[in-house]
Every structure is written in C-alpha cells, then in structure tokens.
Amino acid sequence: MRFILLVTVLLAPAAWAFPWMVKHNYGSCAVCHVDPSGSGQLTPYGRAQADVIVRWRTQPRNDEEEVPKSANFLWFLELPEFLNLSGNARGGALIRPSPTTPVIPLIMAADLYATVNIGPVVGHVTTGVGVKNAGPAGILPQCSGQCNAQWTAREFWVGAKFAEEAVMVRAGRINLPFGLRNNEHTSFVRQTTRTDVNTSQSVGASVSYNSDVVRGEVMGLLGNFQLGPDIYRERGYSAFAEYSLSHNAYIGLSSLIAHAGADPETTKATTRHAHGMFARLAPTQKFAILAEADFLLWQSPQLLDRIGFAAMAQGDFEIMNGLHLMLMLEGQHKGAGQMGPELGAWVSGAWYFLPHVELRFDHILRRRSIAGVNPFFEYNFVIQLHFFL
Amino acid sequence: MFRTVLMGSLLTASLAFAGWTQDGDAEATFDAKANVGLKIHGECKKVKVADDGKALTVTLAIADIDTDNSLRNKHMSEDMHADKFPNIVLTVPLDKLKVPDAGKSLEGEATGTFSIHGQTKDVTFKYKATCSASCEVEGSAPINLGDFGVKVRSYLGATVKPDITVGAKFKVKK
C-alpha cells in the first residue's frame, strides 16, 4: 500500500497557477497553459506573458523585443515549435514556532515538463523528484510517507484539439477539473475536496471547452494508479463550468462524486461528494477577488453520513507590476465531530523579481478543529523561491 | 435653447442633437476575441466629442488605447498602421440622433461613418441617451476589422478574430 500520510501535504510543492490573471482580462487559462483548464506548464504564449505582464519592472519594457529571450527554456534555449520543455524548481523553508524543528527546509518541487504538439495532437508529461513530499504523485520507491526521495509523475496525458482549439479531449493522468486552480494548494478548498494540482491527479478521460463566454471540463475518474491496492482508488467524475459575465467577472459551478472501496483517510468504503460555486472578479486592473464555496458530503455504509463545507475568499492586490499582496480567509468543517469549523487567515506576498523567478511568503494562521481534540491555533510561515525553467 | 428643446420635446417626444459640446471626460472601449477563449479589452480615456452643426464626431488616438499589455498595444498600433492613420473617428449626422426628454432615457439605433486604418465605412450602432442638465450617451457597434483592411495577427499561437465590438461613453451639453 503506497498511500501517503495526509500530513505530508503541507510540505507538498506549490502550484503555478494565476487565477488573478483575470485582472489582465485573461479569463480563459488555455491560451497560457498546456492544461486547458489552467495551471502547470505554460505555452509559448504564456511564457512570453510571464515576462511581459507578470514580471516586476521598475522601467517600462522594451517592446521592440517581440518574444522575450527569457521566455525560452532555461531562459535562453529556443526550441522547435512542436516541442515545449520547461521545469519547476521550488525550495524554501517552513517555519513553525515549536520547541522541536521550528525550521524545516523544503525542496518543494523538482519537476520537468515536456509537451509535444503534432498538429491537433498533444502529449504532455510532468515528472521529477519529490523529496519527502511526493504524496499520491510518487511512483517509486514505494513507501508510506517515509521516503527521502521518490520519482514522481503528476501528469501524463495525450489529447487532441478540435473546433479551432476550443475543444480538447484528453486521456491519462490529469488534474481534476474542479473550482479555482489557486496557488494555495494547502488551502481548505483544495485539500478537502482533494482537487489540488500537486498531488490530486487521477487517471481518466476528459473533455474541455474554452470560448470567450464559457469554459469548462468534465472528467471521468478511473482512480490514481499510483495508489494501491485498487480499493483505494476513487472512481466517479469531476467537472466545472465557468461563465463570463463580462471581461472582468466570472462565475462558475463545480461538481465531483467519487467512490473508493477504502477512503485513504477512514479506510472505509466511501462515496465522496463536493459541489460548489466559485467566482473571479477584477474590479480594477490592480485588484482581483477570488472566491469558492463547496458543499461536502461523505457517504459510507459502515459509518454515519457526514456533511461539511469548505470555502475561501482571497483578495489579490498588485501593488505594482510583479509585486502582489494577498489576503485570504478560509473555513471548513468535515462534519466528523469537530468542535466548530476550522478557520484560517493567510497574508501572503509574491514578488516576481526576475523573469520566471518568484519569491513568495505566506503567513498562515489557522484554528484547527479535529475530532476528539480541543480546538487549537496553529501558525506557519512559509517562504519559498521558485524558478520556472 | 435647451429649455426650448425641452419644451418642444414634451410635444414631439424627441428631437435631434444639435449645438452640443463635450461635458467632462469621455471614454471608448473595444472588445476583441482570440482562439481558446482569450479576450482582449482595450480602453481609451482621451476621447474628444465635437459638434460642427451637422454631425457629432467622436475622435480618439490609437496611441491612447490601452489593452493592459504594452506589447499588445504595440501590435495593435502596428496592425492599424497608427503611424499613417493615428486616429479612429466616428461621425454621426445630428439628425440621426434623438434626444430624450429631460430626466428620461432613450435607446435607439443610428448609422454613422466609422474611420479606421485610412478607410471609412458606414456603421450601425446602438445607443442609449439619458438627459438632465447634460446628456449622457453610451453606444456600441460591432465591426469587422477586415472590412477596414486591418490584418489581425497571430502571436505565439494566439490569433485575434477580426470581429470586434467598439463602444463609447460621453456627456454632452448645450
């Protein structure tokens, strides 16, 4: 059995997904990301915009340079049009006031991305090394959260684009289409719905659609085959659809129902539901609001049904180009006999001080509420340096 | 004069615009689409509105349009050959426009001429006018850039579609 202790998720690598790009009128993710529903590897267009829009500058950009040199793989290497290579290296430290190991060094991501485009056919692989944190993305060696290093494979899929690239059909190991693809992968909405883009991928098949008015994806889940035995694999569906109210306002619905013979948390047969709404609004070019609220239900023949929720709202203020200050409030309840909901507040900053380089910090204060334990407060400070090769 | 118009409008419901001057700031927008759901929104905060007694003219400079992306602004300027044709102009004969009664709004459709990229063509647009001490006018029209000889470009896989919507919002007063 290779399922990984859930406590390791705090150490999992962060994502590369910017739903706040709605501030810059990027409502659809597909133009900038290989994954048509967003996050992960950038397309050549996305790599260029990372330099043109996302990067911090003190002087206006020299727009005579059509395609920024720094948008190339490893900042300099021009690749043939059919091949897209990139990487994701992220390291930092988790600082948690405690008498034992108050500072935990982290190698959060060491991934390589490869995408091959041949006409309408796309093949994509994300693979790398996970250090004590690969979670359900780990392949070898097999262990139960005790490995020092594991070979990981988060995504591998083959797809085809149709209808002027508006429709994409994919099969393989794919991110679950659900809710916001926010960077805060340890947020309650991502962890409790198990839809983060770091370790929650599943094997399955999906159809996505992207137009200027509507975007969405429906995926049939066959389970995470990097977990075993088969009884732990969740099967069902996950889907979202988002409607554009205007060029700077979007509202969406998500739904997921999945069944496993043994839930990784309870080891009981469980059918898991998550159904919710999310929104992205940009009242100004400097400020974006991201919000999500999900209703949760766990059904098991061996246990009482549980209902719960997970919700978050985040304000992202772009102080100046490439310098972001974020405030996020979140809450969740798993309906498992906790004394009140779990609550959290995040104060975060992200500074894209060089092309494809990010320095980020997160102050995370949470009221934890676990069944059988008195509620307590927990504080973590995470600082990380991210190179997007 | 304005009072006369107002009084007259009580009887005739609406009259044409005439003798108007711009009142405060005006703005113009455009919305374009590209493949895979990409949307492009441009804004111009420097818009001039003038009335020469025969027509109402809305003028803006391409250099003043901002798409929130400096490289895209440059592409737009190049595609529209702004060095040769720096302005975008909408001209509407005054007798094609209706003025609502004071305190009321009126929605209508009119045809004017739209000049861009050195070419001028008739464009039918929808507008809404709300009048009190001044009249606030908001209008929009679909246009096809190809009809004006503008060749849209592809940039790293993103291809802009030629059908766009242009809009303007301004206040005028007597």
The domain tally of chain B reads 1
The biggest sheet of chain B amounts to: 11 strands, antiparallel
- Following the backbone from N to C, one meets helices and strands of chain B in this order, namely HEEEEEEEHEEEEEEEE
Helix content, binned percent of chain A: under 10%
Terminal CA distance of chain A reads 34 Å
| Count of domains of chain A | 1
User: CATH superfamily name of chain A?
Assistant: Porin
- Highest CATH level, the class of chain B: Mainly Beta
Number of distinct helices of chain B:
2
Average pLDDT reading of chain A? 90
Tell me about the largest β-sheet of chain A.
16 strands, antiparallel, barrel
Q: How many angstroms does the end-to-end distance of chain B come to?
A: 8 Å
Number of strands of chain A: 17
Structural class of the secondary structure composition of chain B?
A: mainly beta
The helix/strand order of chain A is: HEEEEEEHEEEEEEEEEEE
Shape of chain B: elongated
